[in-house]
UniProtKB/TrEMBL annotation:
PANTHER family, per database record: TYPE I RESTRICTION ENZYME ECOKI SPECIFICITY SUBUNIT (PTHR43140:SF1), TYPE-1 RESTRICTION ENZYME ECOKI SPECIFICITY PROTEIN (PTHR43140)
Keywords: DNA-binding, Restriction system
Recorded GO MF terms: DNA binding
Top-level taxonomic group: Bacteria
Tagged with keyword Cell membrane: no
Any one Gene Ontology BP term: DNA restriction-modification system
Organism lineage: Bacteria, Pseudomonadati, Pseudomonadota, Gammaproteobacteria, Pseudomonadales
Protein name per UniProt: Type I restriction enzyme, S subunit
UniProt source species: Marinobacter persicus
């Protein structure tokens, strides 16, 4: 089992995303967790990685596993210990420097003040929260599904536009490539060697250092200091960078197979680990950015990349120049880009609105939980007023 910020204690089998930490083959050092135990990731508790377990299983030896007092209802305790006020206590009591190495230990945990009502009230509060949070979570899931659907439609729209054009009545022909299928009869199919030449020019002082993202292509501004913290170290000698000019296509050799490619929109410099393709004929560069970032063309870049494993794959210039590209007349390239820009803007606005709604729902949920477990709202079924709460010693809560 593991402890997640937004889910508490979960089974590994219930985690959808890819895990980056492997479980040791020797389980003798792992800790047994019983149903109702309170589990803390002592390195991430200050962020909210805590929860009461509703499963019997094992967790990392690095976690804290505590037995709850009989005075606490497990479901109520799960809400209480994960609410933002309690997480604030975890922040204060954690030891370490900065926000990366901050550990929470038992001597600090056992001294934390914990305020809670009697058991009947705890049960009433947790029942109410179960009901309300289930409704909120269901609404959030619906909106997340809507976002997924919008993003899928966006990708289909782009791929259809850059491989089939905008006119459904256009005569089609076989592209001769099974993975592409039919294309407009008047479009050309070219290898990139006929479209681009490699640009190899040194950078110079005064130009912004740009990045290439799998999410948004080539940046238009200087790489931020926050991004530099992620392993990017600026080189004093600017000639070690590569110069890029507007209209170029730049790609990250190590992540092209994931879609890290795009049009350059401003003169600047990029990492020597990136490659620059300079158009050798008149084109609309953004059309090719859209094309190269579709799934079928990303898969083509993957096939042309060299490396034993995903993390070692590289798309070198020799591989890029062999890529097959669809080339409509330049006027049609521009019309397709205008259409995609317009439709994508609509999709992005809809996604942004749904994201805002999800954020507000999550904020409302957190506020409701905090208010309920701290006695700030009236709970149906509670006879005694919430103000009459106990405040026992922490040692009576966890062992």
């Amino acid at each position: 089992m593991s402890v997640y910020l937004d889910r508490g204690v979960v089974l590994f089998s219930d985690v959808d995303e890819k895990r980056t930490n492997a479980t040791s083959s020797d389980l003798s050092g792992y800790q047994l967790v019983e149903v109702g135990d309170f589990v803390l990731n002592n390195q991430q508790a200050w962020r909210g990685s805590v929860g009461v377990s509703f499963y019997r299983g094992i967790v990392s030896p690095a976690y804290l596993v505590l037995r709850l007092s009989d005075e606490l209802h497990p479901n109520f305790a799960n809400y209480m210990f994960r609410n933002r006020d309690m997480v604030g206590h975890f922040v204060i009591c954690s030891k370490g420097v900065g926000t990366i190495q901050r550990n929470l230990y038992w001597p600090q945990v056992k001294r934390m003040p914990v305020v809670y009502p009697d058991l009947p009230e705890q049960k009433a509060i947790s029942n109410l929260l179960d009901q309300k949070t289930t409704q909120i979570d269901k609404t959030i899931r619906v909106k997340e599904q809507q976002i997924t659907l919008l993003k899928e439609r966006k990708q289909i729209l782009i791929q259809n536009a850059v491989t089939r054009g905008l006119n459904p009545e256009t005569p089609m022909r076989d592209s001769k490539f099974e993975w592409i299928g039919e294309i407009p009869a008047h479009w050309d199919v070219m290898a990139n060697r006929a479209l681009f030449a490699e640009r190899v020019e040194p950078g110079r002082e005064g130009l912004p250092l740009l990045s290439v993202s799998i999410h948004s292509g080539v940046s238009e501004e200087e790489v931020s200091e926050e991004e530099n913290v992620r392993g990017r170290v600026k080189i004093a000698d600017k000639t070690k960078y590569n110069l890029v000019r507007p209209g170029d296509i730049a790609f990250n050799m190590m992540r092209a197979w994931q879609g890290a490619i795009g049009e350059v929109r401003t003169e600047g410099m990029i990492s020597p680990a990136y490659t620059i393709a300079m158009p050798s004929q008149k084109i609309v560069p953004k059309f090719f950015e859209y094309q190269y970032r579709t799934p079928i063309f990303i898969q083509q870049m993957d096939r042309n990349s060299k490396g034993i494993t995903d993390f070692r794959k590289r798309l070198y210039w020799d591989g890029f120049k062999q890529l097959i590209t669809l080339v409509p007349p330049i006027e049609e390239q521009g019309a397709i880009v205008e259409y995609i820009d317009r439709e994508v803007a609509k999709q992005d606005r809809a996604v942004s609105l749904l994201d805002q709604q999800i954020t507000k729902l999550k904020e409302y949920k957190a506020t409701m939980i905090n208010s309920a477990v701290t006695g700030k709202i009236k709970v149906p079924g509670v006879v005694e007023p919430v103000q009459g709460m106990n405040e026992p010693e922490a040692r009576e809560v966890c062992q």
